[in-house]
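Please, structure for the following, as C-alpha cells.
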Amino acid sequence: MLTIDPDSDTPLVEQIVAAVRLAIAGGEVRPGDELPSVRQLANDLGINLNTVARAYRVLHGQGLLHGARGRNTRVTATVETPGVAPSLARTRAARAIGSAIADAKLAGLSLPETEAAIAAQLRWIWRDASRRPA
C-alpha cells in the first residue's frame, strides 16, 4: 500500500501519515476500506509497530481513520473533520506545497520539469472519479 524511505530526513511517522493521506486523497482507499493492522504494516515496512500506531493516531485525530485496539482500522472520510480551522488547513497546505517546490528546485529540476511534476500530481489526485476502481 505504501512505501517509506528509512534514509529520509522526514520522520517515519510523517512519511506514513503523508502516504496514507495521499492514498485517501487520490481515491486508492475510500471510506469503509480496511487498512493493514498496525502490526501487519509495521512488519511489511520493517519498522517498530509503535511508529505505525503513532501515525494511525495522527490520522485518527484528523478524522480520516477509525479503529480501536483489537479492531480493524478503516478509512472513515476523504476530508478532514472540522477540528482544524479552514485557515490553518490552508496555511498547512500552502507550506507543504512551498516545501515541495523548494525540494524540486534544490534537486535541480527546472521550472518546466517542476510544473510538469505538479501537473501530473494534480491530475492523479483529481482524476475522474468514474475511472476509479469500485
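The first helix runs from residue 12 to 25. Helices lie at 12-25, 38-45, 49-61, 86-106, 111-125.
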